[in-house]
Amino acid sequence: MDIKYSLKRSRKRKKTISLQIGNNSEVTIYAPYYTPVKEINRFVEEKESWIDKAIRRQAALQVSPQEKSYVTGENFYYLGQLYPLEAYFEPLENAGVIFWNRRFFLNCPANAEMKKHYFISWYRKKALQYLTERVDFFGSMLNLKSGGVRISAASKRWGSCSEDNHLSFSFRLMMAPPEVVDYVVVHELMHIREKNHSSKFWDLVVEVVPDYQAHRRWLREHQHYFNL
Ligand SMILES: [Zn+2]
Question: What are phi and psi of 58, to 5 degrees?
Answer without folding.
Answer: -65, -40
